[in-house]
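anyone seen this seq b4? input:
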Amino acid sequence: MLRSMTGFARAERTTSSGVLAWEIRGVNHRYLEVSLRLPEELRPFEAGFRRAIGAAARRGKVDASLWLRPETAASRDLLVDESLLDRLIDAAQAIQRRLGAAGHIDAVDLLRWPGIVREPERDPGPLAQAAEALLGEALAAFVASRSAEGERIAGMLRSRAAGVRRIVDSVAGRLPDVQSRIRAKMKERLAALGAEGNPERLEQEIAILVQKMDVAEELDRLGSHVTELEATLAADDAVGRKLDFLMQEFNREANTLSSKSQDVETTRSAMELKVLIEQMREQVQNVE
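predicted toks r here
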């Protein structure tokens, strides 16, 4: 199944530490480039997250962000450093004795002292496991998003490829008539020039010139490229680079067809081919 490099997905889950949310975006890029934003406590697990993303995306610039919205303060456990608090109270009482009534001690002010109140240290392992599981959900949605866009592109490519085949068949059908007209035109020119010589030799020279102007080989290769394109679109793999190479081959044959054309219809057909090939090339730039 064809996959686009463009995609978006978001997944959210509530954990004991708060609400986790992954957001993944993908855009075109020649290779795979992953940009990762994580909460500080999950930095040690970055390598594992990158491996998971790399397994889901082969090409593209992927921006993945993980947010943690902590649980409300009312539900969080708080620890008071009793030893530090005792020393702080002793110091405050000493100041109060010196200042008298002006030395009022406020309990809230004591709790604001740096280090008096802190949150208990937590094992980041369970949070990392939850983030990894949630990343799996987000990546599944991300791949589905890319696949849906890929199918749209595949449909467009198949439609344009069918157009290429119709043009190739049309030009090939006119080929005998075109070759006859080229031969007749050359004979007329030779006659106008009053060329003399061995008629058999002249016929050989005309045949050589007609062969040089023959586009049958280009038409055959264009037909083969269409067949290869159809097979590539049916492959279950990352085929963006192969499709890009095919577009170059399509364009090469269309240019040769145009340069060798000896009639208006074939020239017009070559231009139509170039338009279709350019439309396919633009879409292929977005394929993984």
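Residues 148-284 form one domain. Residues 125-192 form the longest helix (68 residues). kinda curious what u guys think
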